[in-house]
Amino acid sequence: MKNLKLIAGIVGVVLGALVAFVVPVPHGLTHAGMIVLGSIIMANIFWIFSVIPSFITGILMLASWVIFGAVDFQTSFAIFSSTTMWIIIGGLALGAAASKTGLINRIALMVMKKLPANFKGQSLAIMLAGTIISPMIPSAHPKAAMSTPIAKGISDALGYKPKSKPSSGLFMAAIWGFIVMEASFLSATAQNYAFKGLIPGKYQSVLSWGNWFVMMLPWTIVALVGGYFLIKLLFQPKEDKAVSHDFVEKQLQELGPMSRDEKITATVIAVAIIFWILGSALKLEAAIVALVGLSVLVMLKVFTADDFKNRISWSSVIFIGTVMALGNIMKTVGLTTWLYKILAPVISPILGNIWITVIVLPIIIYLLKFVVVSLISTGTLVTLCLLPFFNSMTYNPALLILIITASVNIWMLSYMDAPVITGQAAVDSSMVSRSGLAKSSLGYMIINIIGLLLCVPVWMMLGLV
């Protein structure tokens, strides 16, 4: 593995340098554009093979633009003063507070208590709990690490053997509810903000919290209902008798009564979501809502200065910021215009009709995921390739972000989805079989396209097509 990383690093540096300084500048592009193109090629190789930490690769990419004179410092690092970065920070902090106080566990367990203690009831409960919790925590890995042990506890309580069909099914119910359903809500994962931040500002305004939810509502219903029946079809045991809720009851007893900090956190998050929904009408920036919510939690000593330092993944924040910088820089140095001329014969037919787009673009992303493992890298690559076509599209380009964010999250092979790997690690790889992963991923890939197709009439009614 170390040798592979070393080889990939050398290849990345050599290819990047060749493109930036050796390859003749093609017609329609400048030397600055070649420097940025070379750095993007190097960075993606580094990201794909995890040569060095992703956020360091991103920092070096932005620094290289300044060092070699492609753009100045203010232009290169401008994204870090944007509202998108601050809502990511505020959102991560709110999610960290919800996890710290135990609010997330309590919501999940209360939902599970309401449904029968058998495979059908508890798989549905886990999926519903994940869907409810998703918009509160904008980070997939903590949700995967938290939800799969709960699923394992239920699996053990129901007497399922490791990696059996029903054990695999409960694991996939956790992944489906807590990770797959992230595409339903803007605030459910930081990568949604990252993809949104890649596109021009005039299109970003369409992707407010409330608009995102409404535009993805048909997909949400299809993904939730279709996912439940898929898991039931693939994994339900022949005998599905209900047992007692002892496991859930025991966990709730250990949590005790709802604490002051939980109540405060729940109130702050609920108010924040309401303001995010009404943000466009109130002309209130989502970042301000998140930061005021964070400030309230700190003033009431629910979230401390140490929590702010230790419970937020600052490396992820920096990585996402460096990725988001690409969209503006590519336009600044003329890369988008040049790419448009190169890719137009292939891309234009796909983007010429929204119905074709929601079928073909996800398939392209599925295929790309076999090579580009990182969810955010895949989405970034696709978005950057499509940026040059925004001005010539017959529908609002913001819709592409919805399609991309719903399509990057597949797990046909375990290495293709990092949150799934986190979930497996949290239960010592004792729950889901390889065939269970592959079958459920294939089912999702089909359900995703169906859900997106049913979103198109809603997009038309909103005047976006």
Automatic annotation (TrEMBL):
InterPro entries: SLC13A/DASS (IPR001898). GO terms for molecular function: transmembrane transporter activity. Pfam families: Na_sulph_symp (PF00939). The keyword Phosphoprotein does not apply. Signal peptide: none annotated. It is a multi-pass membrane protein. GO terms for cellular component: plasma membrane. It is found in: Membrane. The chain crosses the membrane at residues 6-25, 45-71, 77-98, 170-189, 209-231, 264-282, 312-330, 342-363, 370-391, 397-421, 442-462. Keywords: Membrane, Transmembrane, Transmembrane helix. The keyword Membrane applies. This is Uncharacterized protein.
